[in-house]
Design brief:
Layout: E1 3-5, H1 19-51, H2 63-67, E2 85-90, H3 93-101, E3 106-110, H4 119-133, E4 138-140, E5 146-148, E6 157-161, E7 168-174, E8 177-180, H5 181-199, E9 205-208, H6 214-231, E10 239-244, H7 253-259, E11 264-269, H8 272-281, H9 302-317, E12 322-327, H10 335-355, E13 359-362, H11 368-379, H12 397-400, H13 412-430, E14 436-438, E15 441-443, H14 445-460, H15 473-486, H16 495-505, H17 515-520
């Protein structure tokens, strides 16, 4: 076997890094990695075309797929019929138990944005999923509090989010090459847990992040076909929900569903990653694609509204679930803060339910009931709104591209928030924690990405703040030091995070993903 494991092997790692799993990784790598690299290069070429004056739009070459009224995705799989509330979080032991027990219908077991690809997280998370499925998991905190699973019929359905196509896995090499983090996470879970999930009456389910085209969805579908045949799992038992969290993917929703149709479980509407992708894709096109303070860009601004309306229409037209965005709020000890935040979350979830979404996300168990109540009010005893076709929706490419109509301004407070949140998050990420509570919100890598991207864009465009100051490298550096000082910790604890942040936020050339240089700083 040409697979080399360069990461340390700890107790029980052989249960995940089995010969069968490694052979599947080898087959997937050899069959699909060249195409993966070509598709990543295609992303870069598209950005260059847009910088030269091109634009995104609905594809002429796939018009027949969009215009064919007859095709549908597969019927909802067991455990994915009712998805009115989904909870997201990393696969550490405590979160695994709490998420499954939370009362949510689905748990997005996150090996991507809410996780760091520290080797111990990559394999340890898989062990926790295995132990959860076999009911061998428990946890006792340092304070002596014990955690254990509720009965099976009260647990959320597990849906695993592997890493995006852009992220490598440096601890697993095939023929001396780094493997794809996406395919590694997928293969390890499918090999260890796929049949176990089928035996329990469900199946191996996935959330697929950060895709930019239907060709990337086709690559995933080919991975599913290869893996099912290799493991002897019936074709179509893998199901995947795609996060439409990149600007290019918003123009290819139907094609993405089509490519995955026998494995498709729907689409999800993100927020931070979508905004991050707007900046990344149109970074050289000036003020027309410049966003104001990130906290002022709600899901109701024109281009976001067009995107979410189109997502519901597209999904229900093809029999697929439409899942709404994240409520990142963490309940606090301050009643006034809670009252205001719960009201905002409730309004947001009611809007999604009224628009036809079949469910939505929360980041904390304390928010499950609020989300559920909003959807219960609309759904009643029905499991979803697939029959709500939203034929009233007609969205044009111009509406999706109308970023310039976004209201709001760029303020010093917004700049400071971006700097502080990005540095605090990166400090935790580099230590191995990917989901971090900051300012009463559960933050993940998407937050750091939009924060540093906005700063890069504002500095690149010479934006003038509400204070009259211009965003420059010097100003960003000064604010970074001031915000670190406010945290009250030893500044050296943030030194590596500060440098990683400044390296990308003030770089002359835009760095496509913050997590790539950050990963190189990890063991």
């Amino acid at each position: 076997m040409a697979v080399e494991v360069t990461g340390p092997k700890h107790e029980r790692y052989d249960e995940i890094l089995s010969e069968r799993a490694l052979e599947l990784i080898e087959r997937l790598h050899r069959a699909l990695n060249p195409r993966r690299l070509e598709l990543l290069e295609r992303r870069r070429a598209r950005v260059e075309e847009i910088a030269a004056g091109g634009s995104l739009g609905f594809l002429a070459e796939t018009a027949a797929v969009r215009e064919d009224p007859d095709w549908r995705v597969a019927d909802p799989a067991p455990g994915l019929v009712d998805r009115r509330v989904e909870i997201t979080g990393p696969t550490d032991r405590k979160m695994t138990i709490n998420a499954l027990n939370s009362g949510a219908k689905v748990w997005l077991a996150d090996h991507e944005d809410a996780n760091t690809p520290l080797w111990e997280n990559v394999i340890g998370g898989q062990l926790n999923l295995l132990d959860a499925i076999t009911r061998k998991i428990d946890f006792t905190s340092e304070a002596g509090k014990s955690y254990a699973l509720k009965p099976d019929d009260e647990l959320a359905t597990i849906v695993v989010r592997p890493r995006g196509w852009h992220l490598p896995e440096k601890h697993l090499l095939v023929d001396g090459e780094r493997t794809s983090g996406s395919l590694v996470d997928f293969a390890l879970y499918l090999t260890a847990c796929g049949q176990l999930q089928l035996d329990r009456g469900q199946g191996p389910y996935f959330y697929l992040p950060k895709m930019e085209s239907h060709l990337e969805a086709r690559l995933w579908n080919d991975a599913f076909m290869l893996a099912q045949e290799f493991l002897g799992i019936p074709r179509g038992t893998i199901r995947a929900t795609v996060l439409i969290e990149t600007f290019p993917a918003a123009f290819e929703m139907e094609e993405i569903l089509y490519e995955l149709r026998e494995h498709s479980a729907g689409l999800n509407a993100g927020r931070w990653d979508f905004m991050f992708s707007v900046i990344k894709t149109y970074r050289d096109r000036g003020a027309d694609f410049q966003l104001p303070d990130r906290n002022s860009v709600t899901m109701t601004v024109p281009f976001m509204r067009a995107y979410t309306e189109l997502l519901v229409r597209t999904c229900h037209k093809r029999g697929a679930h439409a899942i709404g965005g994240m409520a990142a709020f963490i309940p606090s000890k301050d009643p006034a803060v809670n009252e205001q935040a719960f009201a905002k979350v409730e309004a947001d979830k009611k809007r999604e339910a009224a628009d036809g979404f079949d469910g939505s996300w929360v980041a904390h168990p304390g928010m499950v009931q609020t989300c559920r109540a909003a959807f219960d009010e609309v759904l009643g005893s029905a499991p979803n709104q697939l029959s709500k076709l939203r034929e009233d929706v007609e969205v044009t490419a111009d509406q999706l591209l109308d970023v310039a109509a976004t209201p709001g301004e760029v303020t010093e407070a917004g700049l400071r928030n971006n700097v502080s949140v990005a540095i605090q998050y990166l400090a935790a990420w580099l230590r191995g924690t990917g989901a971090v509570g900051i300012f009463n919100l559960m933050e993940d890598a998407a937050t750091a990405e939009i924060s540093r991207s906005q700063i890069w864009q504002w500095r690149r465009n010479g934006v003038v703040l509400d204070t009259g100051a211009t965003v420059t490298t010097e100003l960003v550096t000064t604010i970074a030091d001031e915000e670190i000082a406010k945290l009250g910790d030893d500044p050296t604890a943030y030194a590596e995070a500060r440098q990683t942040f400044l390296d990308v936020a003030t770089a002359e050339e835009y760095v496509d993903f913050l997590t790539l240089p950050a990963y190189e700083r990890m063991p």
